[in-house]
User: Which sequence fits this backbone?
């Protein structure tokens, strides 16, 4: 009879990796059918194959290595995915919910842990800090119902930063105390070193990253650079005696605005993390769990019960206080509670740090009872969070309080691509101004003259590059190589034949000093099309932009496309998490301000009153090298047109050398084709 135990645990690296990949592949599929979080599936699979399960795999050095990487990756990705605009929009409410959701579970938990579970002070504080953290696992449910802009949702999202930061701070301090001598001076020095290093990460890392992103545009190189910054932040935090996960989290916050959620780089980071590092970490967590401890007649079930009750009660109490202070409804309180009670990333981080701290007597700071109880806590809170968020969102949606506007499926954007060096920047611009969740594909065209084989080959490569970029962010892209006898006519006919509502095109490249600033194509586009045209000159990667200036003529609010460009520029500022400064007539700015307020905009906006004329010369000193100038102009014959707008092109050429510029001509009302021609453009 064959002894199967002689084959296990498997030690061959090929088969180890194969088994892990099978788990990563099939666990989410199975648990999706069971309507349970994927995180539980990975942990449960690790439990089954681990030493305390069927002993198929041993918890070897590979799981330790990938486990550390995955833990840092989880915290880094969590901070990258935080919407900083929502945090700023929530302001006091987020701080109130975050502080109460941290203080209540922590205070109640410390008392309960010391009295009911008989743990020491350090273990009780660390364990109680686990109750205080939360992860927005149920946020996609809110987004699906179109409620992502409700104030209670903003409070929950912003509160995540507060609770997780405080939890990680407690975790780092407790972990740091066991890496050196204890005492008041040690604690003070540890705190000072952490503050100093945090300031270095927050102020220095973004500047290094901004320089690097401007210098190197290759996606792989950018990804490796970001990973290097991640582990540099984690390593420096460990060097000063704190836990590396705090460094990873702060690094993510520091780089947050430089990595827009719609960017290819963000998709690379999410893909690698969710496909390999994070699942490997979760499987490793499952492998060290021993269910025999949970059901072995000890204190494990009691520990799990205390953890669940305190975590849920503390979060409910925090939601109740926030509801009373801000006069919310019961459904808003339940939605806020549903979003803020799920335990996952920070909770796992805390328990593993405590589990790996070995005391002088050989015991662990947090024992097996806590480790197993944490898994039960994660399972219960994730299920409750999902159910409560689903039911609350449904009630609010049925009551007619949906905040998000439905996607306008009629918006169709065409990107005219010619210069290979500008493809990535024009594509990233299109991603940022595109409506989130839109199902309408983007389209890209390269127009070449008939029988020019060299230009056709170049155009094919340009479109292939655009397809690769769109594929990384899962945005559908239709491409077309169009042959024509006239470049401008080719674009115009493409727009009209397919009913496109917007055109994005790069500025003309001057081939000689006497060459026209806009070439021959762009002026013909302005006279031949009445849809919105966005002319772009991006001298640096758009994710490195720090501020946006928008100037527009008086009476532009009477143009057909007024709200269209207002919404697009708002999405651009939100995606870049940068300040936006409006320069224009007071009447127009009042309407913009009211429109943004009605749509619960989260951008940081400033308003500077002018007479609504051509202000390019005046504001040229305000537009720095890392700023973006958006000039909203008008076609001849339109309501907002004035003769001074004819000088825009000359002023851009004279006063904005080396600056990034978007020149927007909004949707116009159709005008007779025999309208007065535009004057020559220099």
Assistant:
């Amino acid at each position: 009879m064959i002894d199967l135990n002689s084959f296990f645990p498997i030690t061959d690296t090929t088969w180890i990796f194969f088994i892990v990949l099978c788990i990563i592949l099939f666990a989410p599929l199975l648990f999706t059918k069971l309507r349970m979080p994927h995180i539980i599936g990975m942990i449960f699979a690790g439990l089954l194959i681990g030493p305390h399960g069927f002993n198929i795999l041993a918890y070897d050095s590979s799981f330790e290595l990938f486990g550390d990487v995955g833990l840092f990756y989880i915290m880094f990705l969590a901070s990258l995915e935080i919407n900083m605009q929502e945090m700023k929009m929530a302001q006091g409410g987020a701080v109130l919910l975050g502080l109460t959701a941290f203080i209540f579970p922590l205070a109640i938990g410390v008392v309960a842990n010391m009295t009911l579970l008989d743990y020491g002070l350090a273990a009780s504080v660390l364990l109680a800090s686990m109750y205080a953290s939360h992860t927005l696992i149920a946020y996609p449910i809110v987004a699906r119902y179109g409620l992502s802009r409700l104030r209670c949702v903003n409070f929950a999202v912003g509160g995540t930063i507060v609770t997780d930061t405080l939890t990680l701070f407690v975790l780092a301090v407790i972990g740091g105390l066991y890496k050196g001598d204890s005492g008041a001076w040690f604690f003070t020095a540890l705190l000072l070193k952490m503050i100093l290093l945090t300031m270095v990460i927050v102020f220095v890392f973004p500047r290094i990253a901004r320089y690097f992103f401007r210098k190197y545009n290759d996606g792989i190189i950018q990804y490796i650079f970001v990973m290097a910054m991640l582990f540099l932040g984690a390593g420096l935090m460990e060097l000063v005696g704190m836990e590396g996960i705090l460094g990873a989290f702060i690094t993510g916050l520091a780089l947050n605005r430089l990595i827009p959620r719609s960017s290819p780089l963000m998709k690379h980071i999410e893909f690698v993390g969710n496909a390999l590092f994070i699942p490997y970490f979760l499987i490793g967590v499952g492998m060290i769990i021993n269910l025999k401890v949970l059901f072995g007649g000890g204190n494990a079930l009691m520990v799990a019960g205390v953890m669940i009750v305190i975590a849920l009660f503390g979060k409910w109490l925090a939601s109740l206080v926030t509801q009373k202070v801000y006069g919310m409804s019961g459904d808003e309180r339940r939605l806020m509670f549903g979003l803020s009670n799920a335990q996952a990333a920070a909770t796992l981080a805390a328990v593993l740090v405590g589990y790996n701290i070995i005391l002088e007597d050989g015991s662990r700071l947090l024992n097996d009872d806590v480790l197993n109880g944490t898994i039960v806590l994660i399972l219960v809170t994730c299920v409750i969070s999902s159910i409560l968020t689903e039911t609350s969102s449904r009630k609010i949606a049925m009551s007619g309080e949906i905040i998000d506007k439905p996607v306008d499926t009629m918006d169709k954007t065409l990107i005219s691509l010619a210069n290979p060096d500008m493809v990535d920047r024009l594509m990233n611009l299109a991603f940022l101004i595109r409506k989130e969740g839109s199902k309408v594909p983007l389209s890209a065209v390269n127009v070449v003259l008939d029988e020019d084989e060299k230009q056709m080959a170049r155009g094919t490569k340009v479109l292939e590059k655009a397809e690769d970029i769109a594929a990384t962010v899962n945005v559908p892209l239709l491409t077309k190589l169009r042959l024509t006898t006239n470049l401008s006519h080719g674009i115009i006919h493409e727009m009209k034949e397919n009913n496109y509502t917007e055109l994005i095109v790069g500025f003309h490249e001057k081939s000689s000093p006497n060459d026209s600033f806009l070439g021959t194509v762009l002026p013909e586009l302005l006279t031949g099309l009445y849809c919105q045209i966005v002319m772009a000159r991006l001298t640096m990667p758009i994710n490195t932009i720090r501020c946006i200036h928008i100037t527009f003529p008086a009476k532009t609010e009477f143009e057909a496309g007024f709200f269209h460009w207002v919404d697009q520029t708002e999405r651009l500022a939100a995606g870049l998490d940068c300040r936006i400064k409006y320069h224009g007539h007071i009447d127009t700015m009042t309407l913009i301000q009211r429109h943004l307020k009605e749509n619960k905009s989260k951008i940081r906006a400033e308003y500077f009153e002018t007479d609504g004329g051509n202000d390019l010369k005046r504001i040229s000193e305000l537009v720095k090298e890392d700023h973006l100038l958006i000039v909203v102009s008008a076609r001849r014959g339109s309501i907002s047109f004035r003769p001074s707008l004819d000088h825009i092109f000359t002023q851009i050429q004279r006063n904005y050398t080396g600056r990034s510029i978007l020149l927007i001509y909004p949707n116009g009302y159709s005008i007779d084709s025999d309208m007065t021609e535009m004057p020559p453009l220099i």
